Amino acid sequence: MSTLSQPIFNPPLKGKKIVCFGDSITGNYVYPTYLAGVTGATVYNVGVGGVCMSNHTNPDYDPFCMTKLADAVATDDFTLQDASPLAPPNLATLKTIDFSTIDYAVIFFGANDYAKEILLGANSDNGNTTFKGSINYVISILLTAYPNIKLLFVAPPWRARIASGDGLESDTNPNPSGVYYIEYVDAMIESTNLKHIPCLDLYRNSGINSYTNTLYLRDGLHPTDVAGCELLGRKIGNCLKVTY
C-alpha cells in the first residue's frame, strides 16, 4: 500500500504550507504529492525541469534557476520569467503564492549544476556564477524578504548515469570538468551549515544505489512514479518534521 492510500493519523504538519523548488526531479514528478500525503501540509510544486541552482547557459532556462526565482519571489516581480518562451506550467502556481503565509521552502538542486559543470566556488562567494555563491545568495535573498520561512536544502541522491544511457554512475565518474557529484553534495552541506540552515543529504542517506536504482530511478536519474517519489516525499517530510 502506498503512502497516498494510507490514512493519515495526526499528520505532523497539518495546516502548514510548503513550497518545493527544484529541477525536473521536483517539477516533472510527483514527490511533492507524496510529501503532502505524509505531512498533511498544503504543498506547492514550483519545480522547473532543466534548471540549476546557479546560472544557466541557455537564456530560456536561466530565468528559472533558483537565484533568479529567489529574486522574483523577494520582489514579487516575474518580468524576467514572463519574458522567457519556456513558460513552464508551474510558473502560474508560483505567481499566485503569498510567501508571507508559507511555512517551509524545500530547495532541491544539484543535478544540473553537476551536468552543466557549474563551478563549485568558495564559501565567501555570493551571486549566481558558482554553486556555493548561488546557495549563499538564495539564503540571503529569501530570508531577508521572508524571515518567517523555514528553509530546507536537499542534496540529490546517487545517479546511475550522466547522460541518458551512458551508464556513468556518479560514485566513480566525474563530470567533464573532473568534478564528482559528491563534491556538489558536500558543497551544499558545507554552505548551508555555515548559514545554520538544514540540509538533507540524499546522496548518502536515501538508500538509492547501484542495487536499488531500478526500483527508485526510472532512467538512472529521475524518480519512479511510485517507489522513487514516495521515498523522496517521505525522506523530505520526515526531515522537516524532526528538524523544525
Q: Main β-sheet, in a few words?
A: 5 strands, parallel
Approximately how much helix is present in the residues? 25-40%
Q: Please indicate the count of domains.
A: 1
User: What ranges have pLDDT less than 50 throughout 5 or more consecutive residues?
Assistant: none
Distance between the termini: 28 Å
Residues in β-strands, percent: 5-15%
CATH topology group: Rossmann fold
H/E element string?
Answer: EHHEHHHEHHEHEHHH
CATH architecture: 3-Layer(aba) Sandwich
Inertia-based shape: globular
Give a quick rundown of the structure:
It is built from eleven helices and five strands, in the order βααβαααβααβαβααα. The two termini are 28 Å apart.
Report on the structure:
The chain is 38% helix and 10% strand. With 244 residues, it is of the alpha/beta class. It has a single domain (11-243), classed as SGNH hydrolase (Rossmann fold, 3-Layer(aba) Sandwich), CATH 3.40.50.1110.
